[in-house]
Sequence to fold (126 residues):
Amino acid sequence: DVTVNGETEVVSVTIAAEVPTPASTITVEITPASATADVSGGSEKTVNFTAEVKVDGTTDSSKTVTWSVAGSNSATSGTLFKDSSKGELTVAADEKATTLTVTATYTDSESGNKTATATVTVTPAS
Fold:
């Protein structure tokens, strides 16, 4: 209440405020997180992976990843992109490395790169 010249008036005030929307949390998950590939018998082995991009904990199938492999000592070991969520690693028969790392990367202009990795334990040929 406001009193002006002895008169009491009821005054109503509205204040508008914008509350910023919190940024979404984006994560990448790769399955399986670890695998094995035994190429000691001289034959290549294939390991399949699935990646999910999650926004605030919910899978968003419209978001895609790129696949890569690190640690290989063979010119022919590598990942094959199957679709937006599936990666296939072919471990070559001549692979000498005992550990390979498969990475699924989601890139976004606002949140940057988000990655997940899986480890492949290799039993190489002697």
